[in-house]
Amino acid sequence: MQSLAVRLNPVRLIDPAVFRRPGSYLIQCCFATFALFWMLLLQDVLLKAAIVVAVASTACIILIVPDSLAASPRKVVGGHAVGVIVGSFFSAILMIPSVEMAVERFRIVLGVIAALSVGISILGMVATNTEHPPAAGTALGLVVHGWSISAVVFIISGAPALSVVRVILRPRLVNLL
To answer: Residue 137 in contact with residue 54, Cβ under 8 Å?
Structure first.
């Protein structure tokens, strides 16, 4: 049995690849930070957490695992487009007066609708070959936090912008995982 000191050795807690390519790790993580910062700055809005998390997760995939299928422009833009369409649909359902009343009386109704938005967005992504896991968060965010034009603009402009960043930087990016 290994001692606690051996198991908690910092060298073992850190991926050895970090020491082989520290510049790539630092630069690509900085690119992810700056990309999200500029998107938030240009939109001049800090959106609800689920929406920002979905787009931030996209930035992570694109800049940390650029060779991943999920990082391809088709998957990024298409996945978020499906998430926006499905999330908008279910958000509209929540605006129906009788559904609004049901949500106020029975909180589980919101949970069911939110879960349906995620499941249907996943189905839509699989059916259109645009599977991008963070995009399910897009649908969820539009349902849980409510639909807003600023959220939709943020997503619809952010996904292509991140894809352009990937295309431009692709020759210099390495998979960090």
So the answer is: yes
